[in-house]
Design a protein that fits this description.
The protein has 329 residues and is α/β, with parallel strands linked by helices. The chain has 13 helices and nine strands. The structure holds iron/sulfur cluster (2 copies).
Length: 329
């Protein structure tokens, strides 16, 4: 009997949502199992790193690698799986653009450890111990992989063949990608797959008029009209700067798109695209006769209605953005 092509799914710094999206294939998992040898997935299967190390190079047909690179272990596994895989796919927003783990690049590693383990009202740690290196216990040594100075996305460490966006990728799109892989009819290397080439606005069936926004409101402040564009109602919906393919489930549920599919085709920086779009729809009223400082004051008042610029505009793409996050203190 011919061996089935091997499939690996690995998680680095991620939340587990990408694995849940794979499990959400439901009965298609059986089709996947019939076509592929699903042999490595730390949260579902008991395969060890040494089993992967023992494989010949390129023995794995496809690895779906989710998660950003936060630790030395993440980097080691990225290199190992790159060596062992014919196709290495950055699977989900953390691997593609850093996603929420990369927001940590706005702080230093020391600040992060301090706010989690020391300067935290729910922690009792008078000796100021932070996890690091090797700790000996009577039962044996525990070795913790070191944190990197900065969170990286996958292509900053290894060569990547394809990208699948989403936080997490929608399950129907994962299946579409599996079918394309099985057909062998793959797009050019480096393509973003399992998605569309337009924006979420193109998939959103809310009515759109001319957008003029005087201030933003948060989700908890009002209940938006169900058929009217959320951005026009003052919700900071990222659909205009986000790749389509998810089917717009958030706006269908009366929630703004937060941008998890990343920048649309041809756009390199999702946050910059959104900021540029906001610049053209911001309404600060009639400025005739106002001084420059009065106009600046109105712009500041408008911007003050956006509570968290980085978390809003770069929630999914900070590591791959032009800014990349703050360096050092
Ligand atoms: S901005 Fe949001 S609500 Fe408006 S059309 Fe685009 S995706 Fe839909
Ligand atoms: S609507 Fe936006 S946030 Fe929601 S799944 Fe689609 S891309 Fe992600």
């Amino acid at each position: 009997m011919t061996e089935k092509p091997k499939l690996a799914v690995y998680w680095a710094a991620s939340c587990g949502g990408c694995e849940i999206a794979v499990a959400n294939l439901h009965e298609k998992i059986l089709d996947l199992d019939a076509a592929l040898d699903f042999m490595f997935c730390p949260c579902l299967l008991d395969t060890k790193k040494k089993d992967i190390e023992a494989l010949p190079d390129k023995a794995i047909a496809v690895t779906l690698f989710n998660g950003a690179l936060r630790t030395e272990e993440n980097v080691e596994m990225a290199n190992l799986l790159r060596r062992k895989s014919q196709l290495l796919i950055a699977f989900g927003s953390c691997a593609k653009g850093g996603c929420i783990p990369a927001l940590a690049n706005l702080s230093t590693k020391e600040d992060l450890l301090s706010s989690v383990y020391i300067d935290n009202f729910s922690v009792d740690n008078p000796s100021g111990i932070t996890p690091s290196g090797t700790t000996s216990f009577p039962e044996g040594d525990i070795h913790l992989p070191a944190l990197l100075e900065r969170v990286k996305h996958l292509v900053q460490e290894v060569d990547v063949d394809y990208y699948i966006p989403g936080c997490p990728p929608e399950s129907h799109q994962i299946w579409n990608v599996i079918e394309v892989i099985l057909s062998g009819d793959l797009p050019p290397k480096g393509s973003t797959i399992g998605c569309g080439n337009l924006t979420v606005c193109d998939d959103c069936d809310r009515t759109k008029e001319e957008k003029r926004i005087t201030a933003f409101r948060r989700n908890y402040e009002f209940y938006p009209e169900p058929k009217v564009c959320l951005l026009e109602q003052g919700m900071l919906c990222m659909g205009i700067a986000t790749r389509n393919g998810c089917g717009a489930p958030c706006t269908k549920a009366n929630m703004p798109c937060t941008g998890c599919y990343g920048a649309p085709e041809g756009v390199s920086d999702q946050g910059a695209k959104m900021v540029a779009a906001l610049g053209s729809i911001m309404d600060i009223g009639d400025t005739t006769g106002l001084s420059e400082s009065e106009i600046a004051g109105r712009v500041d008042s408008f911007l003050a209605t956006i509570p968290d610029y980085a978390g809003q505009f770069y929630k999914y793409t900070l590591a791959s953005s032009t800014l990349g996050g703050r360096v050092g203190r």
